[in-house]
Structure formats: structure tokens, C-alpha cells
Amino acid sequence: MASEWFENIGRPRFVVAPMVDASELAWRLLCRRHSATLCYTPMLHSNVFTKDPKYRKENFTSCPEDRPLIVQFCGNNPEIMATAAKFVEKDCDAIDINLGCPQSIAKRGRYGSFLQDDWQLLHQIVSEMSKAVSIPITCKVRIFESVEKSVKYALMLQEAGCQLLTVHGRTREQKGPLTGIASWQHIKAIREAISIPMFANGNIQCLQDAQRCLDYTNVDGIMSAEGNLTNPAIFQGVNPVTWEMAFEYLDLVEKYPCPTSFIRGHLFKIFHKIFTFEKNNEERQLLATAQNLEDFKSVCIKIKDKYLLYHQGELKFDNNEGITRIAFDLILPPWLCQPYVRISPEEHTQKMERLSNKQNNNNGEKRASNDIDDEKISRKKMKKLRKIMRRPVKPDLEQHNRRTISSICFNNTCPNPLGGKCVYQLCKKCCKNKCYEEDLDCKGHRILVHTRREMAKKFALQKDKEVC
Hints:
- This protein folds into three domains: 4-238, TIM Barrel, CATH 3.20.20.70; 243-311, no CATH class; 372-467, no CATH class.
- The protein contains 20 helices and 13 strands.
- It has helices spanning 4-8, 25-33, 46-51, 53-59, 78-88, 104-109, 119-132, 147-160, 184-193, 207-217, 226-230, 242-255, 260-270, 281-289, 293-311, 345-360, 379-389, 397-401, 428-438, 449-467, and strands spanning 14-16, 38-40, 44-45, 69-74, 94-99, 137-142, 165-168, 198-201, 221-224, 369-370, 376-377, 441-442, 447-448.
- Strands 1-2-4-5-6-7-8-9 form an eight-stranded parallel β-barrel, surrounded by six helices.
- Helix 8 (147-160) packs across helix 9 and helix 14 (281-289) packs antiparallel against helix 15 (293-311).
- 35% of the residues are buried.
- Mean pLDDT is 87; it is low at 322-329 and 393-406.
- Residues 349-376 are annotated as: Disordered.
């Protein structure tokens, strides 16, 4: 039986996950327009949140349309997490504890899924946060290998005061290329054991997946992360045109600004299938170097101009044209939002084994790199050169403050985009040529022609002295 507070927020069924650098206000509002009924903020660090007003202002933004909303915190100190909860108590509907992050940064900070073995501490955190605020405390967790232990874990959190549980049906070790399939069996067993509202997370790539999960596990709602990023209309059951979603998102960003890195990340996810085609490398590079809203919009316009006639049926699209990184037929045309399909852990393991065998067959020789003069550099020497490049250099003030006025290489005969940090305002190819011809270095492109030649001269001089 759902609790009263869960009824008051409308028994949300389709939930946007807390995603670092991805579930910011503009993205949440976009998803709400397309059938999401509850959103989480990105994970916030409780310790920094309580001490740094600037961090609070920059990382927690909302508006009246952004409800119901759950704010997520990470941390391992009950008092600090309770204090952080008080800061946002009046601006959200519940506060979530991140007990699911499997990344190495969570291991170093001892939060997320790396707290799941300290049940006594978790009980204390949930209990103290529940006493500190008047709104519900919820938890997002990962499972253990054992179904029985996963169920006991959920019951412990419920007893401590957790009023809603989100279960990601993967273990702490299932991440990156080893993500694999989430276990709905674990989720179902936990659902049958606890009495508080519960969301399921994992294996959701379309609305049909969400419905199958609801039917099998009998949870109250479905949470989506990766599926939502590639298709913000996933809960609407449609595959919208990529540039339409992108333009709608950018309009919201104009009203509710966020860092350009967030925008770039979202557009790469939305256009991920389009960028698997070699003929779209120019648009991909423009997106990688975009610095403002106009730059991002121009990328969307270029993609729209290229694919609109195909979408309208006036031109016939060939799935195999220009494919470089995929070798299978597309179920949906690439200009539509669609899931990102990972390779299986088994395929990844086989790939790693093939690479390992290939390296072992090279007679134990270490990999060598080539410099600008096409001469081999040992790994030891390359490491030394990189160390030299990291040494701080005081640039000319005027050069340092100069802003890029064009996104195209300053070589008039070159159409390529320039490197964002190139000191000569050139693309990498033109920069290499300039450095080679004029005996220069480029810190931005990490081209070390001058440095390497000077080192070679010193080395040769030292050799001559030794001979003498």
C-alpha cells in the first residue's frame, strides 16, 4: 500500500534518474514535457553542499514547473547529510541517498555503492536524515549477487526509515563495458518483501521495456538513465526526430542556463547514431569544439539540412552508406532518437583477449610512438616530453587573453575546424606543418618539434664530448 506522501505527488510511474552533469533543470523540464512524471536532481556532495554557498547556487536550481522533484545526496557522515537535507527541504518532495554509484571516485570518497557493506552506518544515516526533515528520505541502491542478501538489505533500509526504494538490478561490479543485463528477478523478490513504494532501474530502452518490467516486478514506477539520455521522449513511447529534441532542449537552456559541457554531452547522446557515419565527422568535430548556444544550434541545423529530405521520404537512405563503427543494419533511421546498444560483457572480454594476444605476438617489443619527423620515440622518452609540456609557461598576456573569433583554421586554404587550445589558431594538421617548417612547439596540440630537436642537439653534443 502506497504511503500518503506518494499519493500526494501523484504516484509517479515514469522517473528520470539522477545523472551527474546530465539531469540538470533544462533536461528535467524537457523530459517532463514528454511524459516523465518525476525527476531527480544530479547527485550532490553533501559535504561540499553544506559548506559552499556557490556550489549550492550553481548545482541546485529549480522552478515551479519542476515538481515533483527528489534531490539526491551522497556522503558517509550522518550529521552532514542531515544538514544538507535541511537546506533543500522546502524546495523538493523527497531527499534521496545515493547508495548505487559504482565509480572509482565513489570508492575513494567512500559513498555510493561502497557503503553497501556497512549496514550499521547506513541505518544511522537514514535514521538521522529522517528525523532532521519533514519530507521523506528515499534510497537508490544496487543489488548483491545473492537475492536473499539483497532482500535483507532492502528490509534494513525500510526499517531505518527509508520511505521509497529504487533498485538498480545490477551489482557494484557491473559497470562500463561489463554492465551486462540487470536482474529483474532480484527486483521482483525485493518488491515482494518490502511494503514501501519502489522503483525499478535497468534494461529500459523503450516504453515497451518499461511496461514489461512493471508487469513482471509489480513495482510502482520505472526509472530510466541511459535510455532517457538518448531519447528524452522514451516514456512517451515515441522516437522523435533528433534535431527537434535538440532544438527544444536548447530553447530551455536559453531560459535555464547550464555549463556548455552539459549541453555538449546531451547533444552527443541524442545524435549518437548519426555520428557513427564517417560523412558526419565534420558535424561531430563542430559539436566537440562548440562554445556557445549559437554554435550548438548551428550543429543541429547542419544535421537537419543533411537528413530532412530523407526523413520526409524525398530521398532514399542507405543504412550502409559511410558506416565506420557499426557493422549491423539499423532498425530505426539514424536521425531518430533511439537506444544506445552496448556490446555484451562476453564480447568485450573476447575483444580484450584478442588485443592481449596481438601484443604478446609482437615478440615482447614495447609500443613505440613517432615524432613529427617520423622518427621512433621510446615510451620512456615520450613520458619525459609530456612532463616537459606540463611545466607552466607564462604566455604573452595579449595572446593569453585573445578569444577565438572563428571556428575554422586560420590557414585560408584549410576548411578544417581549429584546435580549441592551439596557440597558432590552426587545425592539428596545419599546426604540425607550421611547427615542422618553423621549428616551433604547440602546447595546445602537444606538438614538440622544437623541444625534441633541442634535446637531440644536446644529446648529440654530449655524445661528442664523451667520444673526445
